């Protein structure tokens, strides 16, 4: 097939549960490709001589190669190709913002009338196919006698652990919660990333030989120095994630029914509060819930609220639609499901009843002024525009501050002015010998795949350090 | 992992558990807490550590049966294990030489104040402990408290032991009648008791530390469920506390936040107990 013919094939859109059905269940939204759809979509890849897509991928998946294998019908081969560089393909195929990475630079997509190859969908297809029909044996290098401790079992830590394990190191993950996965487990909802699929990819890591210690809070149960000096780890990687939730700091925020996005999502995801008949952690339900914020976490929270039974689930955002940081796909899905978006609204205070439960929020309208330091136009209050909206619950999804537990218990670790760990961008090296860091604890809240990319670089640097002893 | 090594019923549905937890036992300091799950579908509940034994590698906790989770816990016997146990969490109680320290334990708060009193005494303080309960039979750890303190004063609601009344009556007597110079008060117990103690000591500006017990999930600063108002600022009890200056704590807010899931807790408990009775019948 020549390029011209390839470019004629229409992009295969992944079929989804109808919005009116999925808005009341927690099952995954897209169904995934059939084998025929995957092969047809794979044909759209023109196998560029210089594949920009690989450069666009933080974990450097050999994208044209795995797509070619799909086209040839070798789906297990495709999965194996992806797994050479990415330990979590079923996760990444679902939660990566491909439109900002591989698919953004896809040569096909750069043409006026042909959309990018659906790389993410194809990755997901290969990973799911392998889970169903295959059992890929992952090559592990000869065991080394050196040990590495990974602090935090989220995307960054899992990547470091997987890569170093493949190189032959003895790797242990120390996880504070009772399950590993980090934000993939507590933050991203079932309908975007089914926990069964996540657990399967996590199990592959454990089967490879990664030791997992849950319920260990580094900085409390042990500290980093003890890992290095008493427990025999040659290097420590810190990937403890984003941290403590930010609040609005307005009156009434302590009322019952006001949650941080982390709390709301943790109750539902990690603790499975949506499954009342089997799990004990409670969550309330009512009619109206407002989420403040417009990032991916806000979308996850508002779509979760809808599924819990809050018929009137809304986003209130102080800027306008153009400044939203959530993925377009997430916003689109949310709107399809019936989430209402209201822009240029800023909360001033929450109002509660005699039982201390929130019943309303007073807001003011905003207008956009000159750009601020983020380059986005700064919202300015409109005088006399105050109004009161009745609500049963509110979720604050405006970001996080650094979690102090590891930084404050690790002497010799340099921090930036916000308290995040200072680490070299290319190696993850911190100011403390033998200690590497990556993911949100270095960058502040970012994406799963960027954390994985940082983990990948750190794994290479840790290997080099342990081989040479040179810091 | 997390095996129950010892269990003792102390009456009123209160059980004492010794749990094998080598890593936690080695690190735990007075005032810190753990989070546990009884089973794989259970909720995470925070409980203050009453004692830790580095030699036996165990920790001691006291838990009153109030709902489904605590009932499930009460059903566990020696030799059985918890699903999860994590700690020691929170900032330890500030222990140093203050002079005269009054340690107040209400109800099973006494179990938590015990290691604090012991540490304060070891630091060279004169420790006056006040422990309270509804009646003599329900008084906890009186003997242990005697060894951990310079002096132990008791208050019981029915007057069956010590002063008839509540711990604040005894404290008021120390401050106003005996005119004892108190350098610091530490109070652990029901929220209403910690509030009453703080109100009383505020009159004389006696620095008072209380240990707060809000609803928590992760216990590591991630979720913000445990936020409390201290000096009108939002603090996370799990990482900033659980100890706070009692004169700055908004206790009413804490009490209100603790009530949020009462209905769900009751439904869950009733449903669980019904199934439990059917099973045993």
Walk me through the topology.
The complex is a heterodimer of chains A (about 475) and B (about 280).
Chain A lengths: L2 H6 L10 H4 L12 H8 L9 H5 L6 H9 L3 H9 L5 H7 L11 H4 L8 H15 L13 E5 L3 H13 L2 E5 L8 H4 L8 H14 L2 E3 L10 H6 L5 E4 L5 E2 L12 E3 H8 L19 E5 L3 H13 L3 E6 L10 H10 L2 E4 L1 E8 L5 E14 L5 E5 L5 E4 L2 E4 L3 E2 L3 H5 L25 E3 L2 H4 L4 H21 L3
Parallel strand pairs in A: 1-2, 1-4, 2-3, 4-16, 6-14, 7-8, 7-14, 8-9
Antiparallel strand pairs in A: 5-15, 10-11, 11-12, 11-13
Chain B lengths: L3 E6 L4 E7 L1 H6 L5 E5 L7 E4 L2 E3 L4 E7 L3 H8 L8 E6 L10 E7 L2 H14 L3 E8 L8 H7 L2 E6 L6 E2 L2 H11 L6 E5 L2 H13 L4 E4 L15 E4 L2 E4 H4 L2 E3 L5 H8 L3 H19 L1
Parallel strand pairs in B: 8-9, 8-12, 9-10, 10-11, 12-13
Antiparallel strand pairs in B: 1-2, 2-6, 3-4, 3-7, 5-6, 13-16, 14-15
Description:
The complex is a heterodimer of chains A (471) and B (281). With 471 residues, chain A is of the alpha/beta class. Chain A has helices spanning 3-8, 19-22, 35-42, 52-56, 63-71, 75-83, 89-95, 107-110, 119-133, 155-167, 183-186, 195-208, 224-229, 261-268, 296-308, 328-337, 405-409, 440-443, 448-468, and strands spanning 147-151, 170-174, 211-213, 235-238, 244-245, 258-260, 288-292, 312-317, 340-343, 345-352, 358-371, 377-381, 387-390, 393-396, 400-401, 435-437. In chain A, the strands form four sheets. Chain A has a five-stranded parallel sheet. With 281 residues, chain B is α/β, with parallel strands linked by helices. In chain B, 32% of the residues lie in helices and 29% in strands. Chain B has helices spanning 22-27, 68-75, 109-122, 142-148, 167-177, 191-203, 237-240, 251-258, 262-280, and strands at residues 4-9, 14-20, 33-37, 45-48, 51-53, 58-64, 84-89, 100-106, 126-133, 151-156, 163-164, 184-188, 208-211, 227-230, 233-236, 243-245. Chain B has a seven-stranded mixed sheet with strand order 11-10-9-8-12-13-16, with helices on both faces. A four-stranded antiparallel sheet of chain B has the order 1-2-6-5. Classes of the chains: A alpha/beta (471), B alpha/beta (281).
